[in-house]
Design goal:
The chain is mainly alpha-helical. It has 19 helices and 2 strands. The longest helix is centred in the last third of the chain and has 25 residues.
């Protein structure tokens, strides 16, 4: 049955010349989803930090398991909306394969060592247009994901738009610390919008970044649901969140009535050794909290993807925000994680410095071969410092936690003499 929710504008490919093969049994959304799953970039997420360094314990979430959980929640939101919203119907619905593709792809651009790695790369790349995990995802989908000869995955418009949480360019923001696209990516943004300019009421910054397709909104709430609840579960399993620390933290906070209730219930479930069961049950509540509303904006006449917005009950949003605050204070700002982040920052800084000295600056005289043949060929063909720095940043952001650590040891640890382990 044809889904009338989408039109030719939504399904248009970035490169129409490389169209869908004759006799293809999948929709373009299924093709985009399948291509993500079968990339090495997706597999690398299994060894990239979510909260705790990958490989430290086998039951903590990595970027890969997090992305899979987000995709399941995203599909469930689609199913819930299709069955309960009067605005949708049997042949008019938000495609779950498209939302799943967005959820699976949403963290592809994140570097090793989690948000600490993202902050470090942004600091190092400030003079070259910055670094941002979502912008890096867009770069991969449009330019680099399939080969080192700069070939993207030829996404359709609806899929590429579903990954665009932010739509402001680096140079448009006065203090771009996060939430931006790289300046050269204006061409992809222009294509996604069909060449239409943003109206005056959507200036660069939060107003523009909040302007998202319905699939992107679902992906974002699925992401919020997963990490706000699951970071707490991992924090409990890791011993960061104990009865004592939570009680002490709660006493130091000015909690609202709802927040105090959430804390009491969490403490009770921990005493009963049912904390993870309770947190999993909240996922269903957060899914149920989502509904669909009509919207009118400059894109709504052209695609149904902008005719609707996701409405989430305020109590669910407040609960998610409460758990995020708890994780920030007790896990991410803990002395143990801060020490690890300081070490990771130093490793990435040293790696970037070595590669920059060898490949970026015009005066570089070192002839040591530090990268693969394909990477060196791309750097040799680059037109200037900015492009070479971006390619070096690609190399580092592509690395897993383990690959970055091993590369650092080969370059800087005098006692590390392995000639075998080059992955």
């Amino acid at each position: 049955m044809e889904n009338r929710f989408y039109n030719a504008f939504d399904e248009e490919l970035l490169d129409p010349a490389q169209g869908v093969r004759e006799g293809e049994y999948r929709t373009v959304f299924e093709i985009n989803r399948d291509r993500i799953i079968h990339t090495s970039a997706f597999r690398r997420l299994q060894s990239k930090t979510q909260v705790f360094l990958s490989g430290e314990y086998d039951f903590y979430r990595t970027r890969l398991t997090h992305s899979i959980e987000v995709s399941q929640i995203g599909r469930s939101i689609c199913a819930k909306l299709r069955r309960t919203s009067d605005l949708l119907g049997a042949d008019y619905f938000i495609d779950p394969d498209l939302v799943e593709a967005a959820c699976l792809a949403h963290d592809l651009g994140h570097p090793p060592f989690g948000h600490a790695g993202e902050r470090t790369l942004h600091r190092l790349m400030r003079g070259y247009g910055g670094f941002e995990g979502n912008a890096q995802t867009l770069r991969m989908l449009t330019e680099t994901i399939f080969s080192r000869q700069h070939s993207g995955m030829n996404p359709c418009r609806a899929f590429l738009d579903s990954t665009l949480k932010y739509k402001s360019l680096y140079s448009e923001l006065s203090r771009p610390e996060h939430h931006f696209l790289y300046d050269p990516q204006h061409r992809w943004l222009d294509w996604v919008l069909g060449g239409r300019d943003f109206p005056l009421e959507l200036p660069p910054g939060p107003a523009r970044d909040g302007f998202r397709s319905i699939e992107c909104q679902i992906m974002d709430w699925a992401d919020d649901t997963a990490y706000s609840l699951n970071d707490i579960a991992d924090g409990i399993n890791a011993g960061f969140l104990t009865l004592e620390t939570l009680e002490r933290w709660g006493a130091s906070q000015e909690l609202s009535g709802d927040e105090a209730d959430h804390l009491v219930r969490l403490l009770r479930s921990m005493r009963e050794q049912r904390a993870e069961v309770r947190l999993r049950s909240r996922i269903g509540r957060f899914i149920d909290a989502a509904s669909l509303e009509l919207d009118v904006n400059f894109m709504s006449p052209h695609t149904n993807r902008y005719r609707y917005r996701l409405a989430v009950l305020e109590e669910a949003k407040r609960e998610a925000k409460f758990y995020k605050r708890m994780a920030l204070h007790l896990v991410f700002r803990s002395r143990q994680l801060q020490q690890l982040e300081a070490k990771c920052d130093r490793m990435l800084t040293m790696l970037f410095g070595a590669l920059s000295d060898r490949y970026v600056t015009e005066t570089a005289e070192s002839q040591f071969r530090l990268l693969s043949e394909g990477e060196e060929a791309a750097l040799a063909a680059a037109s200037g410092d900015w492009e070479r720095a971006r390619l070096v940043c690609d190399v580092l952001s592509r690395m897993t936690d383990g690959a970055a650590t091993r590369t650092w040891r080969r370059l800087f640890d005098a006692d590390f003499r392995s000639l075998v382990d080059f992955s």
